[in-house]
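Fill in residues.
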């Protein structure tokens, strides 16, 4: 719920969560994260997790079934060998769902689509 109905929704939300969202900051964000073909940043959630939460604190807090895994394993438990899964009592498909997106192939397909659009295709 927005505490101050006189404020624009994004500004009110940003105020409630404690981030600064001035008009200039919002314009900068729009420029950095616009959805056009000039901006080919494709974020990988595993890479982002490893980079910005290397110890996996967020994952461990909200996914207790992964709390006992090593810092390396907690970001991508589906990469553990069957022996590691059994040892850590975290079997993918039983204790944690198997991935539904292969980020490497999804990235490749997206880059192909960007190339078509950049070339003036459909």
């Amino acid at each position: 719920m927005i505490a101050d109905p006189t404020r624009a929704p994004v500004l009110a939300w940003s105020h409630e969560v404690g981030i600064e969202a001035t008009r200039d900051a919002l314009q900068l964000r729009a420029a950095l994260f616009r959805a056009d073909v000039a901006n080919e940043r494709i974020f990988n959630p595993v890479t982002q997790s490893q980079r910005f939460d290397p110890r996996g604190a967020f994952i461990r807090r909200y996914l207790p079934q992964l709390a006992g895994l090593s810092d390396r394993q907690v970001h991508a438990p589906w990469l553990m060998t069957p022996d590691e899964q059994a040892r850590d009592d975290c079997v993918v498909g039983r204790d944690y769902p198997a991935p539904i997106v292969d980020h490497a192939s999804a990235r490749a397909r997206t880059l192909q689509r960007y190339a078509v659009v950049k070339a003036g295709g459909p």
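The mean pLDDT is 80.
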